[in-house]
Amino acid sequence: MPISWARSRSGSQSAPKRPEFRFPPVRSRRLKYVVRGFDLVGMAVGIVPLDRIITGRDLVPGDVIIGLERSGIHSNGLTLARYVFFERGRLAIDHVFPELGIPLGEELLRPTFIYVPEILDIINNIPSLEALINITGDGLLNLPRVDARVGFMIDDLPPVPPVFRLIQQYGAVDDTEMFEVYNMGVGFCVLVSERDAGAALSILHRHGRRAQVIGRVVEDDGKGVHLPRERLVGHGKAFTPI
User: Fold this and answer.
1) Rounded distance, CA 129 to CA 47, Å?
2) Whole-structure pTM value
3) Using an 8 Å Cβ cutoff, are 174 and 180 in contact?
4) 190-228 pLDDT, tens per residue?
5) What's the CA gap between 122 and 110, in Å, rounded?
6) What is the average pLDDT score of the chain?
7) What is the span of the domain harbouring residue 204?
């Protein structure tokens, strides 16, 4: 269904209903010689007191990595997905894979989960919270952005969602590129001490969010991301087979 300007405004006006969101007036500009229809662009700005910034500087080996479920591809890797399905695979946007159960276009445009309520609850109630990592572009390679010089052993990932298997199958994409581009089923990570892992999981489940312990912090001055089950190790922006 084509998206109208009126529908986009209606959707944007629902944003203030979410916790801690303030939505300014929408400003539009007609560029009829540049864009046919309209190009919708948005951004968000967060404000955090300097003494409350969570940088992961106190992470130590043995701390637990909790992975939160994702809703879809979370708006990352769409260029690759479009190429694989619509150019290479020549599929229609309304094609329905049995594994997905909905039109392909709807799967690729699933709204990204917003983790604000549950993460604020964890910030306020888990004293050993050490790091919060958004698993966006670069996937699990976002983990080493913490200040501490530690590594990450990810040895219990949830099953890979069907959409990623389909991208890999139709595009002949190898595991290294898939884990470099996509979240592969984990949309956000919470890192806490082992003693508080159960309490953190209880908060997440109370908010209706599926989550599980996916690994632990390990000694590694190189700040590597280790995926033993997938036989991959990551540094910087790349995974390599092991």
Assistant:
1) 19
2) 0.85
3) no
4) 999 999 999 999 999 999 999 999 999 999 999 999 999
5) 26
6) 88
7) 50-241
Give the Cα separation of 124 and 115 in Å (integer): 14
Task: Give the Cα separation of 44 and 184 in Å (integer).
Answer: 24
Q: What are phi and psi of 87, to 5 degrees?
A: -95, -55
Tokens linked to 191: 């890192």
What is the reported pLDDT for 69? Answer: 95
Q: Any long-range contacts for 102-108 (C-beta under 8 Å, 24+ apart)?
A: 107/72, 107/163, 108/72, 108/73, 108/78, 108/81, 108/82, 108/163
Domain count, the chain: 1
Angle of the 116-125 helix axis to the 197-206 helix axis, nearest 10: 150
Return d(Cα 119, Cα 187) in angstroms, integer.
Answer: 13
State the Cα torsion 54-23-15-207 to the nearest 10°. 30
State the amino acid at position 103 in one-letter form: P
Mean of pLDDT values over 57-77: 94
In a domain? residue 157: yes
CATH number of the domain that residue 168 is part of: 3.90.650.10
